[in-house]
Specification:
The chain is built from 5 helices and 13 strands. By secondary structure, it is an alpha+beta fold. It has a domain of 184 residues: Jelly Rolls. The chain is globular. The model has no long low-confidence stretch (mean pLDDT 94). The structure holds 2-oxoglutaric acid (AKG). The site of 2-oxoglutaric acid (AKG) has 11 residues, from strand 6, strand 12 and strand 13.
Length: 274
């Protein structure tokens, strides 16, 4: 209700990306807005995320739980129409990520139509109408493993022909620092298009950028307070280190695409309501 009112009052112009953000996006492949979301909103979403984690853990431990699937030595499980990726440590009951996740809790779903996401996305992509491409919830619990450097585009391109028109937004649910595994990004790496993945190792390694072949800038740590949003290009190289702190470093990642396309791996479009 409040969100709709704000949207009408301010129009999308209030939240649209400004000239310096657009310039940064074009040159570096990303920009960051700090504290976009309030503590009240974050508390609600953190509670919902924990609620969903608990529910998934319970379902995974039940007698009729869906089978675990292994890719390389990593564990995956399809629960409640979401792909759950378990933490890489053998036997760990920590969930690393769920994709998609918005449908799993009533307090999470409305985020998809928030003007603080779609208005900047519209100006970055230069489009009037958008649709959801995919959405992922990352938990990064204490001792959570690193996420090797990669581009999202080779993964998305498995089922998508318009990866150049995708925009991802990572919303930090917790303050993100180097010690708890913040995102690291290589500025300007989106200019290279889809790069070679690591060959001759595991299946998943092929989706990680072969950093021995890459020549470009050094990665920068995206440290930022909770509620900050990183708007980034599907070709930009990014990754994260392990979480060495005692708290989770949670984040939601939403990816938008031009309207008229189905949600990734589904037969349905989810247009963004503006
Ligand atoms: O936030 C992170 O640790 C990295 C997440 C990421 O790059 C991804 O989910 O594709």
């Amino acid at each position: 209700m409040l969100q709709k009112m704000m949207s009408r009052l301010w129009g999308s112009g209030h939240y649209a990306a400004n000239a310096s953000e657009l310039e940064k996006f074009n040159s570096d492949g990303f920009f960051v807005r700090e504290k976009v979301f309030s503590n009240r909103e974050l508390d609600k979403w953190r509670d919902a995320a924990e609620n969903v984690h608990k529910r998934m853990e319970t379902e995974a431990a039940s007698n009729d739980a869906p089978d675990l699937e292994f890719v390389d030595d990593k564990r995956f499980q399809s629960i409640d129409d979401s792909v759950v990726k378990w933490e890489w440590r053998e036997g760990s009951r920590d969930i690393r990520s769920m994709e998609p996740f918005l449908h799993l809790h009533d307090d999470l779903h409305p985020i998809v139509d928030d003007p603080r996401l779609w208005a900047p996305a519209r100006s970055i992509l230069g489009l009037n109408k958008l649709a959801l491409f995919t959405d992922k919830l990352n938990f990064k619990r204490p001792q959570g493993a690193p996420f090797p450097f990669h581009q999202d585009s080779p993964y998305f391109a498995l089922e998508c022909k318009h990866v150049d028109q995708l925009l991802s937004m990572q919303i930090y649910l917790d303050e993100s620092r180097v010690d708890n595994g913040c995102l690291w990004i290589i500025p300007g790496s989106h200019h290279h298009g889809i790069l070679s993945g690591v060959q001759g190792k595991g299946v998943l390694d092929r989706l990680y950028t072969d950093m021995d072949l890459f020549q470009g800038e050094d990665p920068v740590a995206i440290t930022a307070p909770a509620g900050s949003v990183i708007y980034f290009h599907a070709h930009v190289i990014h990754g994260s280190k392990g979480n060495k702190s005692k708290q989770s470093r949670r984040a939601m990642v939403l990816t938008y695409q031009p309207a008229g396309h189905n949600r990734w791996n589904t037969e349905r479009e989810r247009e963004i309501r503006m």
